[in-house]
Amino acid sequence: MTILDNTVESDLTRLLNLIAELSEQLAQNRTLSISLHASAGTVKTQATHSQSGFVLRRFNLDKPQEVYDAELERMNASLATENQGLQHDNKQLGALIREYEQTLESVMSTFRKRARDVQEHELALIRDYESKLLAKESESLLRALSVTTVESTSLGRISTTLRSLMRVLNGEEPFSTSASSPSPESSSSPAEEFDFGEREEEDWALERECELARLERENAILRRLFGLEVREPEYGERTGNANSSMTDQRSSVPRPTGGVPQKKMLGGAPGTVGPYGTYKRSAGRPG
Hints:
Blueprint: H1 2-52, H2 54-59, H3 65-169, H4 177-180, H5 184-187, H6 198-226, H7 235-240, H8 246-251, H9 262-266
Helix pairs in contact: 1-3
């Protein structure tokens, strides 16, 4: 590219020098034409004076008629010869000017063609670079979009897995396969990826956890009332047995030792005593 630029600059320099020389030559020719035109005007004035005989009559009144006629013929012949020479010079100058004009026109056409080629080459390079830059930018945007989509999908799967794990730890049924792995039609729309009913399920799970905690406290109170040893369940035991039903947990409560009936311990018939050692409203207190 540098060699091409140097060649173009050298060609342009030579072209400009040639144009300057042609301009100087044209200026000289124009000056010469003006001087010739002035000389022709002077000669024309002299010819007019010669035809009228004003000059001869004014300065040659002492000469005879034969000398006067001979001088007049000689002057006319010299003027005609000079006129022919001037006409020949004018023709040569006209031909030279036309040749210079043709040369200048050819040089300018070559210069315009070369400048047009250089400009088209530069525009082609610019368009090529712009297309490459646009393609690279589009590729980078598509790559970033694909990475973002993959990250979003991975985060969605991780969140679904974590929710399933929390449900399993809380003793609930995990999400089904169809819910954990949505179809491509459902994954195409970002608004449909999230289940807006999960908030209600989480609230229900929280209520169920609170109910389990309340039942555990009630079970501990009953154990203390029965005089049994109260053992706090560990977190691993509670989560490991979370899949068992509530009926099995309540049936696993041990009975008081010694075979003492409940009605004698609490002072009432079966079915008349509440969970905290109080009597129910439907049954009267024993007298």
